[in-house]
Design goal:
By secondary structure, this protein is α+β, with helices and mostly antiparallel strands. It has one domain. 61% of the residues lie in helices and 14% in strands. It contains four helices and five strands, in the order H-E-E-E-H-H-H-E-E. The strands form two sheets. It has a three-stranded antiparallel beta sheet, with helices on one face. Strand 1 and strand 2 form a beta hairpin. Helix 3 runs antiparallel to helix 4. The longest helix has 38 residues. The N and C termini lie far apart (55 Å).
C-alpha cells in the first residue's frame, strides 16, 4: 500500500511539471508537433499536408527551406514504407512461429528483422518531422523583424527596440 501511494505521488508530481500545451508565437511560423497530420500555423492560417507545405515553402524562394522540406518528404515517405514492410514481416514471423513447423529459425529471423525494420521506419519518420521543425526554425530566424532605433527630441534621447 505504501508503494502504491509513493507511485501515485510521483505520477502527480510528474504531471504537475509537464506542459500540456505548445506555445504559439503569433509573429512567426509554428510547427505543431503531432504524429498525424503535420501542421504549420503561419499568419493565422493553418497549413496541413504536403501540398500546402510545398506551396508555403516554395513561395519563399529560399533553397535551404525547400531542401529541408524535400528531405522531410523523402524521410516521411521512406519511413512509412519501411514501417509497413517491417510490420508485415513481423506478422509473418509471428505466424511462422505459431505454426506447427519444426524449423522456427525463419520465424525468428522474420520477427527480429521485421521489428528492426519497423523501428528504422519510425526513426525515418521522426527525422522527417525534425527536418520540418528545422525548416520552421530557419524561416523564423531569417524573417524576424527586430529593429533597433534611436529617437531624438529637444530635451531627450531615446532608444527604441521593436520586435
Amino acid at each position: 500500500m505504501k508503494s502504491f501511494f509513493l507511485l501515485l505521488i510521483s505520477l502527480c508530481l510528474l504531471g504537475i511539471t509537464s506542459n500540456a500545451q505548445q506555445r504559439i508565437d503569433p509573429k512567426g511560423m509554428n510547427y505543431v508537433v503531432a504524429p498525424k497530420p503535420n501542421t504549420i500555423i503561419y499568419n493565422d492560417t493553418v497549413y496541413k499536408g504536403s501540398s500546402q507545405f510545398k506551396q508555403l515553402f516554395y513561395r519563399t524562394h529560399n533553397y535551404e527551406l525547400i531542401e529541408l522540406y524535400q528531405r522531410h518528404q523523402s524521410n516521411k515517405i521512406t519511413g512509412q514504407i519501411v514501417g509497413v514492410a517491417g510490420t508485415i514481416a513481423t506478422i509473418f514471423g509471428i505466424s511462422r512461429l505459431s505454426s506447427s513447423n519444426t524449423d522456427k529459425g525463419v520465424g525468428w529471423a522474420l520477427l527480429g528483422g521485421g521489428f528492426a525494420t519497423t523501428l528504422a521506419g519510425g526513426y525515418l519518420t521522426f527525422m522527417g518531422q525534425r527536418n520540418l521543425q528545422m525548416a520552421v526554425t530557419l524561416f523564423n530566424q531569417q524573417n524576424s523583424k527586430t529593429a533597433l532605433g534611436m529617437g531624438v527630441s529637444n530635451s531627450q534621447v531615446g532608444l527604441v527596440y521593436k520586435l
